[in-house]
What we know:
Elements lengths: L6 H4 L6 E4 L10 H5 L1 H4 L2 E4 L17 H26 L10 H22 L10
Parallel strand pairs: 1-2
Amino acid sequence: MHDSQQISELICKDDEVVYGDSGYLGAPEQDAIKSNESFSKIKFRINKCPSSLKNNDCYKGENWDRSIERSKSSVRSKVEHPFLIVKRYFGYCKVVYKDIAKNMNRFNLLFACANLLMCVRANRNHAPIVG
Length: 131
């Protein structure tokens, strides 16, 4: 089952904005979202399909639709980057369903390592300042 069919269970009641790719285009129109008061107040910023963003060849200015979609994607990429590190660099693509607590411990450790890797890449290797 695709995540877009379970969107009402994926978002929290205190969320204000939800970003998603083009697979979630119909999410705001789902009955579970419309019927819930807290979910109906959420702003959905869903990317459009790239093929639907056409521009006239003779127009030489800025394509505002593409720049808006690019800004939505830049927000999503910050959230999805740790998942790329965990899957590609640490090789954790499939979950072992033998023990859920063991899987959660692995996820916590892998995402902590992904955060450390991103800090090292950003040259943030000094100790945090605690005030």
